[in-house]
Write a structure and sequence with these properties.
Layout: E1 12-13, E2 23-24, H1 28-49, H2 54-75, H3 83-99, H4 113-137, H5 145-168
Antiparallel strand pairs: 1-2
Length: about 180
């Protein structure tokens, strides 16, 4: 299989479920798929840097698997996020919250490299969520309630993991002074 076809050289592409008609690469559907792809790739980078923290690494690996399902659903495949994927994130976040100090307000990203990268991943996840919401609102795809819930919880997971990374490294969180 060739790694390129040249068919997109004029700025169009096809998506699964679109009767193979050409659509602009800048339209909402490719934007959503691209944001999900970017998030998945970045999570892979962060996962490799979290090798010394297996809980973080495993949570990121699970998120990558679920993002492939979401990408397939957004592309038009008959795939759906299962309810247990949302519950799994909730369970992880709840367990982390019991382990780390209570949140006292906003926190300044950083502390450790891993925490800072998880905060970047959180912002990419929020962007991807906004892009798939646009796809839903424009009625380009019917997206399951579980997919939307998962994307909403994913940024919470990444925030909790960022806080956990700092906690495990004994680095105190900084709050803005306003």
């Amino acid at each position: 299989m060739a790694l390129f076809t040249g068919k997109g050289d004029q700025g169009t592409t096809t998506a699964f479920g679109c009767n193979q008609q050409r659509i602009s690469k800048s339209s909402e559907l490719p934007e959503a798929l691209g944001a999900l792809d970017e998030l998945n790739a970045f999570l892979g980078f962060v996962k490799m840097l979290s090798i010394s923290e297996p809980r973080i690494m495993n949570a990121l690996r699970d998120a990558q698997e679920t993002l492939f399902i979401i990408q397939a659903e957004v592309a038009g495949a008959d795939k759906k996020v299962e309810e247990n994927a949302v519950k799994n994130i909730e369970d992880i976040v709840n367990a982390i919250e019991k382990e780390i100090p209570p949140l006292k307000g906003f926190s300044i990203a950083g502390g450790t490299e891993l925490s800072a990268l998880l905060d970047v991943a959180r912002t990419i996840a929020r962007r991807a969520e906004r892009r798939i919401i646009a796809v839903k609102e424009l009625h380009l795809r019917e997206l399951s309630a579980e997919t939307l819930a998962y994307m909403n919880r994913l940024s919470s997971l990444l925030f909790a993991l960022a806080r956990l990374a700092n906690h495990l490294a004994c680095v105190a969180e900084e709050t803005p002074r306003y």
